[in-house]
Amino acid sequence: MAPPAEIVVAALLLASGLVVLLAAVGLLRLADFFQRMHAPALASSLASWIVTLATIVHFGSRGEGLALHTWLIIIVLSITAPVTTVVLSRAALFR
């Protein structure tokens, strides 16, 4: 892999870690259950997109073509993460 691509992949992975760290801080600082659900739900979606972009850059720079399985993973994560958040919030609301 080319050194510029390694730097881009490393920067993207660090950015993803920073997003998750900020979500953890938000999880600790927010007051009630519904507010605490908000930060990790948004951050997990954003962090997974950033990791997916890093994966696409990594495999694209190696010359192996498009990593189509990566797109399938991010599509499934993008659908299931918000649905899980809604189900958890509705369960807490009706409890």
Q: What are the defining features of this structure?
A:
mainly alpha; 95 residues; elongated; 3 helices
Provide the low-confidence segments as ranges. Answer: none
Q: Report, as a whole number of angstroms, the end-to-end distance.
A: 52 Å
Helix content: over 70%
Mean of pLDDT: 86
The largest pleated sheet is described as:
none
**How much strand?**
under 5%
Question: What is the alpha-carbon Rg in Å?
Answer: 16 Å
Number of strands: 0
- The geometry reads as elongated
String of helices and strands: HHH
Q: Supply the helix-strand structural class.
A: mainly alpha
Helix run count: 3
Write up what this structure looks like.
It is a single chain. The chain has three helices and no strands. The chain is 87% helix and 0% strand. α1 packs antiparallel against α2 and α2 runs antiparallel to α3. With 95 residues, it is mostly helical. It is elongated and about 50 Å long.
